[in-house]
Structure formats: C-alpha cells, structure tokens
Amino acid sequence: MTRLLPHPILSLMLLGLWLLLVNSVSVGQLLLGLVLAWAIPLYTARFWVSRVRVRRPLVLLRLLGVVLYDMLVANLSVARLVSGPIARIHPGFVRVPLRVQGNVAVSLLANIVSLTPGTVSVFLSADQRELIVHALQADDPEAIIGVIRHRYEKPLLDALEQV
Amino acid sequence: MILPWALNIAFVLVSLALLLSLARLVIGPDKPDRILALDTLYVNTVALLVLLGIRLASNLYFEAALLIALFGFVGTVALSKYLTRGDIIE
Amino acid sequence: MTEPLSSTLTSPLWSLGVEILVSLLIVIGAAFTCLGSVALLRLRDFYSRLHGPTKATTLGVGSLLIASSIFFSAQGPGLSLHEILVALFLFITAPVGAHLMAKAALHLRVRGQSGLPPDALLDGQGVAQPDPQAAPRPVPRPASRIDADPLRDAD
C-alpha cells in the first residue's frame, strides 16, 4: 500500500500471532505487538516476490469453511481406509492441469489439496501449469480433478487477483 | 472422574503411535520413509507434551511443544532438501 | 502423579459438561494421532504413507490442542488461546513438509505401487546423477528460476 505500511494484512496477522504467543492482551504487549507488526513487514518487504490482491474476501472465507469441513471428512475417510483391508487401496498419481496463476495462489491450492480427502500434492511442473497429485484411491482420476477444479480452484480464481 | 481416565487412554494411544513411528524409522526402507517417520515422531511428541501439560495442569509444557513443532518442521525441510539437492545452504 | 490434577479441578468454570467435552476431545485426538502412525506402518509404498501423518496426525494434534485450550480456559484466569498457535503452525507446515518429502522421494525415484509420473515432467529440477534412460529435457528452463516453484526457495 504505502511505503510505511507495505503489507497491512500481514501486519494484522503478525499482531494477532504475537498476542496469541504471549497469551495476554495487556497494554504493554499490545504496544510491543504493534511495533513488531509494523517493523517486520517493513524489514522483510524485499523478500516478498509476488503479491496478490483479495478481490472477494467473502469467497475466500467460504473456501476456508469448505476446507475445514473437508479436512474433517478427509480424516474420517483416511482413517476408514487405513483401518480396513489394505488390498482395497489403489493409490496412484493424477496430473491436474492448473488454471490459477501466481506463486501465492498456486501454493495455496497445493496446500489445500494436501489437507483434503485422499490427495497429497507431490510435484509442481516447472512452468506451474500442472500439479501432480498422489491419491490414496485413484480409481477415478477425472472425479479427483473435477473436485479440485470446482471446489478449491474456482473460489481461488474468483477471489484472488495478481498484482 | 472422567478426565483422568481419558488422559490415561490418550497416553497409551499416543505412546503406541510413537512406537509405530519408531518401527517405521527402523524399517525404512527408503530414505524419505525415514524422514517421514521422524516428522511423525515430532508431531507425536507435540501431542504427548500437550497431554502432559493437561495432566500436570501446567502451562510450561506449551513452550516446549511449540519449539518441538518448529524444530521438527525445520528438520524435515533440511533433510528433504539435502536429499533433493545434495546440500542444504547453497 | 495424581495430585496436581485433582487439586486444580476446583475452578468455578469447571463443570461436568466441560469435563466430558475435554475428555472426548482428548480421546478422539489421541485416537487420530495413533491412526496416523498406524497408516505410516501399514501402508505399502512411500507416497501412500505420506497421507497418514499429513492428515490424521494434524487433526489428532489439533483436537488435543483444542482440548488443552478449553481446559486451561476453564481453569485459569482468562482465556488460554495460545494452543491455537501450535495448531495453526502444524496445519500450515504439514502440507509443505509433505510436499518437500514427496519431491525428495521423486528425485530419488522411489517407486510407488503404481509406478512414477513420467520422467520428462520430473526432470525440471535437475538430477544429481544423469539417468541414461531419462528423456532429454523438453523445454529450456525458464529464465527466472525463482518463479518456477513457489514452495521452493530461491537458488
């Protein structure tokens, strides 16, 4: 934004993290947190290669809810697969073509894929066009690609904008 | 008293998890398997420390858990990068 | 080892309902932590084993941390929210760690149950010992290697 406060959202997050870390909201800690939240983004601004602008924060918030819910389901499904007979598991690699662009969006998508049902993102092609995903149950690759595209990638496409 | 019982069950389960991860660490067979086993050991240790904190009703264990989580991640990254690149700091 | 626990369970906020909730979260969390390690031991190839610790274990420890947060909030003066910090940290680092370990495994050509993705794709990151069977690199590497992979540090 301005030279003095390059990453307002990062500053806000840092302040929150600091208050969580010290586990109190006294005036002293609040002031110290404010100083840190101002100084750290200023000092590290040059390391931030790419930036994004959040166009629709509500879509992003909804995506967060979806991901949290899916994580719960993911755990139950993995737990069921693991505790059952192993011969029923047919793992495999699935190549997912990507539509999102930019470091932030792609790494967000890769991490979401890792945390949600039966898939772990394993490799990203050098041109960032393809994500290789390892699926625990890869009987139907098309379905996996479809879920990733519609459930996680589309909200990211809608909500984030490369700056 | 339900909580002491729950804690005892949880201690047994998490200790079992530690043993299972240790078994994978010993068996291998590949190097990434061992890194994964170490990573899991770290996370299990965090779980054990959190349980101990509740058991002894002490906040002191939290810092230890946080530090182990941090070092575990750094260790995993360093080992993986070493396998991928041959050295860690280029 | 029983004294500290029984002597502190006298706070006014500590009720049977809270105790049941905390106990439930603790048992569920420990069970998931254990299942993650069971997956680590039982599954057949490295890439499948990756699923257990990244998912089951994070949720397990997350659940334990929520239990701890409720426990200390009900006991002590004021809310205790710093457990969320550890949970947040684990949720952010688990997929990144898994990705790096998987990349290391692909680099070493650790074989999975269903083979490997095509070599031409994986060659983007340079193999330590050139593999005679590997296909020649299809495209020259992009000029800025920093942008090539967001999960990898700059060279």
TrEMBL record, chain A:
Pfam families recorded: MNHE
Keywords: Cell membrane, Membrane, Transmembrane, Transmembrane helix
Chief localisation class: membrane
GO cellular component: plasma membrane
GO molecular function, one term: monoatomic cation transmembrane transporter activity
Record's bilayer topology term: Multi-pass membrane protein
Listed InterPro entries: Cation_antiport_E
Record protein name field: Na+/H+ antiporter subunit E
Taxonomic lineage of the native organism: Bacteria, Pseudomonadati, Pseudomonadota, Gammaproteobacteria, Chromatiales
